[in-house]
Amino acid sequence: MTEARTIFRSSTTTSTLAIHYHVAMPQPQSHLFEVTLQVEGWEAPLLDLKMPVWTPGSYLVREYARHLQDFSADNGNPTQSLPWRKLAKNHWLVETGDASAITVRYRIFANELTVRTNHLDASHGYFNGAALFFFIPGFEQHPCQVTIAPPHPDWRVTTPLPAVSGKFNTFEARDFDTLVDSPFEIGDHKLYDFEVLGKPHQLAIWGEGNADPKRIIEDTTKIIKVEAELFGGLPYDHYLFLLYLTASGFGGLEHKDSCSLIYLRFGFRAKDKYNRFLQLVAHEFFHLWNVKRIRPLALETFDYEKENYTTSLWFSEGTTSYYDLLIPQRAGIYDAKTLLENLSKEITRFLTTPGRKVQPLDESSFDAWIKLYRRDANSDNNQISYYLKGEMVSLLLDLLIRERHGNKRSLDDVIRIMWEQFGKGEIGFTPQQLREVIESVAELDLSNFFSKTIEGKGELPFNEYLKPFGLQVVAVDEDSVPYLGVKVRTDNGQDWIQFVEMDSPAAVAGVDAGDQLLA
Fold first, then answer.
1. In CATH, which of 1.10.1780.10, 3.10.150.10, 3.40.50.300, 2.30.42.10 is domain 480-517?
2. If you classify domain 289-474 with CATH, what class do you get?
3. Nearest Cα to Cα of residue 280 among 195, 181, 211, 198
4. Given pLDDT bands bounded at 50, 70 and 90, which one contains residue 511?
5. What is the pTM for the complete model shown?
C-alpha cells in the first residue's frame, strides 16, 4: 500500500525569512512551557510545521508531540487568528493567507527529568530542542533565534548556544540541527567556569548532594586532556557540562559542544560510584568526536520524523563504552588493576546475558529503535546491547591490533583515522568504510572476524585474544554457586521474579517473570 501525501511548497526564500522562538514559564509549578514561534517574511498561503519524534543520540521514537497542547496561530495579533488543521501526529498546517508575519503559540507539558526530555518545576527548567520546537520543512538549514523569559529575575539561562549581542536572554542557532543539539538549563543552578587547553568550559550543577565541584573539575580536566591528545586537539570553541543530581537517575546525552548528565545525588564519595560517574563523563565527552562528528552515513543528515536505521551503533556507542573504561585509567584517575576489574565486570555481564546467542551485533544496532529502549521481561533472552557487545568487540579488536603490531598500533589508530577521514569534515561513513579502516590498521583481512563477532551469534573468543597479554577469563567458584536462572527484585519487603533465563531450571519448572517468591 502506498501512503497518500500532500506536499506544500513555499515560494519564501531564506533571505527574507526570520524564525524566532520565545520560551516562557510564568507558572513553573504547572510544568508547562509556553512557546511562541514567530515567522516573519513568509510568502506563501500555507505554513507547514512539524515536531520531531526523536532526538539524536537517543534512538527511540518518543512522540514528543503528545505533550503539546493549546495550539493556536495568528498574524501577530492574538485576536486575529489564522485557520489551521492537524494532518498527522506531529504535523500542523496553518492557512496564512496573505499574512507575512505569523505567530504560533502552544504549550508543552514538561515533567520528565531525563537527558532526552523536558522538565519544569518551581526549581528550574530544562529542555531539549527536539522535544519543544517545531521545524518548518524545507527551512531546517535556516538560522533561528531563541529568547528565554525566566519566571524569576534571579534565574539564569545556560546553554551552549552563543548569545545575541544587545538582546537579553536571546541566543542564536545557525540551523535547526544546532538548535536541537543545544540543551537549555534555566534556574538558580550553580555555574563554574574553568579553562582547559586554552578553551573555556563550564560546569552547571542542578540539585543537591555530595558532589565536590572542585574535584569534578580537576578530574574532568584530566579526561579532556587525554581525549584531546588522542584526537589531536579540541574541535570546539567552548564546552558545557550540565549535571543533574537526582535520587535514582543515571544517564547522559551527547551534543557537539555540550553534554547532559544525570547521576545519583550522593554518588560522589564512594570510590567505585565516583569512578562510575567519571566513566559517564568520559563517555559523553568522547561522543563529541565519535557519533557527533564521526557518524554513520544514516545519521549524517537527520530525519526527525522517523527512525534513522544503521548497523554501526556498535562502533558509535560500543567503542565509546570501551574508551570510557580506558580514559580514566590513562588520566590517572584509577589504576590498571581497577581497569581490569571493570573489564571483568563488563565481560561477566556480557557472558550472563543469554541474548548474546540470539541477536547478532549488527542487528542489535539496527533494532535499537524497537528493542534496547523498550525492554520487557524477555529482553535479556532475545537481545544483546550494542553498547555492551560493541564494547567487547572493541576490546578484541584492540588486542588483535596490539598483538599483531607489537603494541605499536592499537584501536587508537582506528579512531584517529576515522576522525581524519570522516569526522573533521562530518562525512558519514558506511559499515564497509569502517571495516576498511580497521583492516588497514590491522593489516589483516578481517572477514572472518566480522562474520563471527558483528554478524554472528557465537561466543566471543576472549581468551584467544587475552592470552598474548598474560590475561584470561576464568569462572570463579562456578561449581559452588547454585543455579536457578532467575533475577529477583525486592519491592516493599516482597521478593518478585524479574527475569527468567530461557532453558534454565526455573524456566523448566514453570517459573515466570512477575511471580512472587513466597519461600
1. 2.30.42.10
2. mainly alpha
3. 211
4. confident
5. 0.93
